[in-house]
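[Q] Does anyone have a clean structure-token version of this?
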Amino acid sequence: MKLKKILSRFLKLHPKEIDLSLDRILNLCEKLGNPQDRIKVISVVGTNGKNSTIQSCYSILKQANIKTNVYTSPHIQKINERFIFNNKEIKDDELANIFEEVEKINDSQPITFFEILTACYFYKAAQYPDNINLVEAGLFHRFDATNILKKNLASIICSCSIDHTDWLPKDEQTIEKIIFEKTSALLNSNIIVAKQNSKRTLDCIKHTIAQNRSNKVFFNDDFNFSVNENDFFYYEDNLGGLKLPMPNVLGQFQLENISTAIATLRFLNLGIKDEHIQRGITKISSLARLQEIKSGKLKELVKNNKLIVDGSHNEDGARVLNEYLQTLNCNKHIIIGMMSNKEHEKYISYFKDITSITTIDLKTQINSISGKDLKEKFKSMPNVHYQPDIKQAIKSIDCKEGDLLLITGSLYGAAEVLSLN
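[A] Here you go.
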């Protein structure tokens, strides 16, 4: 309850949820003693795969007994998820104390919700100057609150694609502009570039960072992986090859994120051994990223059928999700709710051979599109239905033995699923 009251006050400090500028957080962090200047950071930017890449790095670092702090957004179930210190999610009382301390120092000055949360993270992280910090950029990066570091260990560029274009001018809603916003202000240190969804995207990234003096490591040029039929995959970079067990997370795209994490940690020479990688990739946390629900109230509704929740919400997310679905030899039923500012028709166009689609209302999000309107947008797809909520949608689907039920379209929707479950 105390945390909820503080967060409510944070939301009132600025009239906008997002106001892309660095002035406010720079001013607050100066009052806090510039804690961001005293920490060791691996910055993670991009559109898709940021959280998965961070969780892969985190899992490997833990196996190597390297103390790690993690800052991610958004959270799925509770705000504490965004704040990991010394390999542990922060507890309510400690987080509330940090919030109150920073709130007092801010002295009611205008600042956005994400900015003050970021300042709180930096403030606490500075208490652990020897820890590795895995920091996920928020919207874009150039004017993002996480972009006030003077130095870092490395910047990881995850898969970049079209998303959040409503924050760009109408004539600049292009992949080129998105890549510029995400990568043009990266620090001069080390840049690791993950696999991209097209040559155009990769070429644009290379062009944008061409004048950056960082050491640069590119997927395919400097590291790669291949999948073996005998339940392992093979990772290779300039330091040599690794035969690795298949990870505990689903989807080929996760191998891309895991490989990027491995490349980063090996390139930085942090003392990571092969066995740390081998163990780490089988213990990755993947909340709402192709997460199989194996027990709980919603799982009881689907009985013996497989239930998966995935928070993908843009074109590239739909593409890699469908690639995973295509590897499964079963009927697939999709329940989907989305935010109103997404490219709904483009998102659904990537799904092939789907048995049924059920659109729903996202009950907790005022900026979501109604399930009825979403159904209308999906009218080109076969067998589309509407139900007002997740439970009724699950109950309405006639699942046969061996069928898969997938709930997707939004991280907020995924949060509803996990909460209901």
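[Q] Thanks! Anything notable?
[A] The chain has two domains: 2-280, 291-420.
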